[in-house]
C-alpha cells in the first residue's frame, strides 16, 4: 500500500470513529407491505433503532490513528 492510501484510509477510519462517539444511536425506517388485494396495497413503516458500542467506535478510531502514523512513518 502506498503512503497516501494508508493516510487516506486512516483519516476515513478516524472520522468514522469520531462520528460513532458523537452519534452512538441512530434510527432507520423501513416500509413493509402488510397486505395486497388487487391494486390496493397496505403498507406500514417500521422504525429500527441501532446502537454503536463505544468499544467499536474506539477501535475504529485507534485503527485510524495507527494507519495515519504508519503512513507518515513509511515516508522515511
State the helicity in percent bands.
Answer: 40-55%
Largest sheet: 2 strands, antiparallel
The whole-number mean of residue pLDDT values reads 92
How much beta, percentage-wise?
Answer: 25-35%
Total discrete domains:
1
The number of helical runs is 2
Q: How many angstroms does the end-to-end distance come to?
A: 15 Å
Strand-pairing-aware structural class: alpha+beta
Describe the structure.
With 76 residues, the protein is α+β, with helices and mostly antiparallel strands. The protein has one domain (3-74). It has helices at 3-22, 54-74; strands at residues 25-37, 40-51. A two-stranded antiparallel sheet has the order 1-2. A hairpin with a 2-residue loop joins strand 1 (25-37) and strand 2 (40-51). Helix 1 (3-22) runs antiparallel to helix 2 (54-74). The longest helix has 21 residues, at 54-74. The protein is elongated. The two termini are 15 Å apart.
Secondary structure: elements and pairs:
Blueprint: H1 3-22, E1 25-37, E2 40-51, H2 54-74
Antiparallel strand pairs: 1-2
Q: Short summary of the structure?
A:
The protein is of the alpha+beta class and 76 residues long. The protein has 2 helices and 2 strands; from the N terminus they run αββα.
Amino acid at each position: 500500500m502506498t503512503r497516501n492510501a494508508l493516510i487516506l484510509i486512516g483519516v476515513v477510519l478516524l472520522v468514522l470513529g469520531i462520528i460513532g462517539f458523537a452519534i452512538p444511536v441512530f434510527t432507520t425506517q423501513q416500509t413493509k407491505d402488510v397486505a395486497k388485494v388487487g391494486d390496493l396495497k397496505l403498507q406500514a413503516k417500521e422504525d429500527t433503532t441501532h446502537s454503536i458500542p463505544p468499544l467499536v467506535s474506539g477501535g475504529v478510531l485507534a485503527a485510524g490513528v495507527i494507519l495515519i502514523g504508519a503512513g507518515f512513518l513509511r515516508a522515511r
